[in-house]
Amino acid sequence: MMNRRVMVKVPASTANLGPGFDTLGMALSLFIWIEMSIPKDGITSFDLHGDGNEGIPTDKSNLIYTVAQQVFEAAGVQVPELHVSMYSEIPLTRGLGSSASAIIAALVAANALIGSPLSEDKLFQMSSELEGHPDNVSASLFGGIVVSAWDGQRAEKVRIEPHADLEVLVAIPSFELSTEKARHALPTQISMKDAVFNVGCSSLLVAALASGSLELIRFAMRDRLHQPYRAPMVPGMTEILEQAPERGALGVALSGAGPTLLTLVDRNSPRKAELEAFLGETIGKHGIQAQTMWLKPCAEGPEITVSSKQQEQSFMERIKGEVRA
Asked: What is the pLDDT of residues 230-278, one digit of tens each?
């Protein structure tokens, strides 16, 4: 264990997909890499690479460290000191599951570091409890599209293989929106009519994704539980929800708690450039810059590489060929 070095690559995720509030998630082709080892000098340290790391702790209050310690405790071992290297291309607090990806990376890496005594299901249960809902963590852990439910005690899931023609276009506004703030925008009660509407749409969306009935996605991705209440927090969102399907999208939703907006697209569509321009221009009309990005559903969960510490290449040299330009 002392000479073991574990590298983990974990996908980002989008949650809800419109009506599936806290229950639907899909892994996306954006990634976080972390490497974990036991330091020879016996001192915990962190190497954070890339942009957007401001404010991330580099002591034992770091999320990756605290989650790793939960794995060691559950396995009945003590590993009080760690060296962690991290690079993430997942933007923080944008609705793309950055915290869920970090939690899964920490759980999987720590488990591999001590010989993988904990089962995948145990890691799923731990991550669902840490996040408070299983949608993002299940997608990052299992890959693909995941339908999940959690009753506060146990999480269960079914994984769906993404359709080969499914692509994802996201528009990431240049401002952050914390999940906590987005949750505060939601009402404490909803009407029976809206509840029934969402149950119908969510059920139909799952069936459409599972059967490959892409033509039903537009109808099924509608939502009345959270998006109408969060729309005032994301300039241009209402217009995009209403008009993106007319501009070539199969369906459109707020990604997680936002502010990223997500469209599902047929990769064979001749209107992809039109849709991308529409998203950028619509948000831009409100004086906000947005980065558009073409992604794919990520069919795989974490990739784990276990090696010895004797390798001469640096952390960034080893992942250089995989990082998104």
From this structure: 999 999 999 999 999 999 999 999 999 889 999 999 999 999 999 999 9
Rounded mean pLDDT, 77-91: 94
Whether residues 47 and 121 fall in one domain: yes
- Is 324 inside a domain boundary? no
Residue 3: per-residue pLDDT: 72
Look up the domain containing 263 and give its range: 166-295
Residue 208 is assigned to a structural domain of this protein: yes
Residue 99 has pLDDT above 90, yes or no: yes
Residues 16 and 227: their CA atoms lie apart, in Å, by 10
Report the CATH number that the domain containing residue 206 is assigned in CATH.
Answer: 3.30.70.890
Shared domain for 14 and 138, answered yes or no, is: yes
Residue 129 to residues 19, 25, 125, 269, Cα–Cα distance (Å): 22, 16, 6, 40
Sequence-distant (≥ 6) Cβ neighbours of residue 164 within 8 angstroms: none
Residue type, 48: L
Asked if residue 205 is part of any domain, the answer here is yes
Helices (H) and strands (E) in the chain, counts: 11, 11
Buried b (16+ CB within 10 A) or exposed e, 143-177: bbbbbbebeeeebebebbebbeebbbbbbbbeeeb
